[in-house]
Every structure is written in C-alpha cells, then in structure tokens.
What we know:
This protein has helices spanning 2-5, 15-18, 21-37, 41-57, 61-70, 72-86, 89-112, 115-124, 129-158, 168-174, 176-199, 218-243. By secondary structure, the chain is mostly helical. The protein has two domains: 2-113 and 214-243, no CATH class; 121-199, no CATH class. The N and C termini lie far apart (48 Å).
Amino acid sequence: MSFIKAYQFSRKRTIIHALDPRVKLLVSTGVAIVGIITLDPVEIAFLTTIQLIILALSKSIKLWFRSLKALLFFIFLIATSQYLTTQSLAQAIIFSARFILITSATSWFFYTTSPEDLGRALEQIGVPSDFSLAFTLSMRFIPVIANEFQDVYDAQRVRGLNLEKGNLIERTKAFLPILIPLFVEVIRRTYEISDALELRGYGFREKRSHWKELKLTTNDYIFLVFFLLIILVIILHRIYYFSV
Length: 244
C-alpha cells in the first residue's frame, strides 16, 4: 500500500505542476523509453540527474524518497538476480540504477499531474473519451482502494485477526475477512460512480466539452526544447562512444 500512496498526485504551485500534461507525458514517456533501452552508466547517471532536477523543481524530493523506500524490495531483487546471473557487481548496479531511473521518470509525472488533467490530455491527443474516462477513474480509484484496504486491515487486526501464524494456505485464508469487505465496498462505490455519471448526462452528446481547454504556454515550449536537447546530448554521446 505504501507503493501506491507514494505515487499519488500532490497539488502544489510549482513550474512543473503548471506544465501542460501532454508535454509532461511526452517527456516522462521519452525518458522512460531511453531508460529501458540503455545500459550505458553515463546515460543512466545523466538522465537520473535530470530527473532529480525536475523533482526538485516540483518540490517532490521527499515523495520520491518515499517511493524508493517502497521499491527497495524490487531494487534488491533486481540487483541480486543480475549478480547471480552475470557474476558482475557492475551489471547489478547498472540494472538497479536503470530501474530507479524508469520509476523516477514516471513518479514525477504522477506527482505533478492530476487525473483530470491526464484525462483531458488523453482526449486531446485522440484517445476516445470512454477510454480516457475509464483510465482517469481507475487512477482516482487506486488510492481510494488503498485507503479502504488499510481501514479494513486495521479494523480486522483490532478485532483479533492474526495474519502471522500458519502456513501459506492458512495465511491466505486469513486474508478473506479483509478481502470480502473490500470487494463489497469497491462494488458499492462502482454503483455510486455509475449513478453519478448517469445523473450528469454522460454520453448524451458524442463530443464532450471541458471547462478548461489545454493550451501550450511558453514554459511548455521551453520544457520541450530542454527535452530535445537531452536527446541530442545522448545521441552525440552514442556517436562519440561508437566512433572511439
């Protein structure tokens, strides 16, 4: 649950928060793709530094450290598996650093972009409104489910539920008193959302209108140029690397 909560939107007044969500989506996705395809430690370090600068500008460094804390198990698992497979400590460090880079590229995007802005961005880039609405609702629903799970978990533990004893099958069965109320609450909220959409006339018109239309500003163009310069630096580094 701490992993889910670490990626919740945090409303702040910063330069990064004010950027167009389409621009942030492009930059975040681009950095994540470069992080996936690269194994160069220089490129990984360079891009990670850029992500730290963006996180600092968005005042999200503490949130980023909290997300890393939630991902420590996965980082350790990646490092261990790589070391056991390749017998190389350098490879284990590189793969772990690459994982941190990819998660950092997605983390600052979710920290600074509200689900509503993300839904509008998806619609304006051509995604059907039904799909964008479903994605937006799922993004808003995940933290709600996490909070509901924590509430039910705490309530059942207070009532004496023990999840520590027994084998794997017994521990799995012990989670039923948590999962059943959670599913009931999720289904109830689903009906509430369905009724709310129907009362507001969703789907009455084929083309939806928005109270706030997305428009690129000067800061958005500056951020895009900054991203293109990053890609240019990486391309020049690869040309120099392969020419040596």
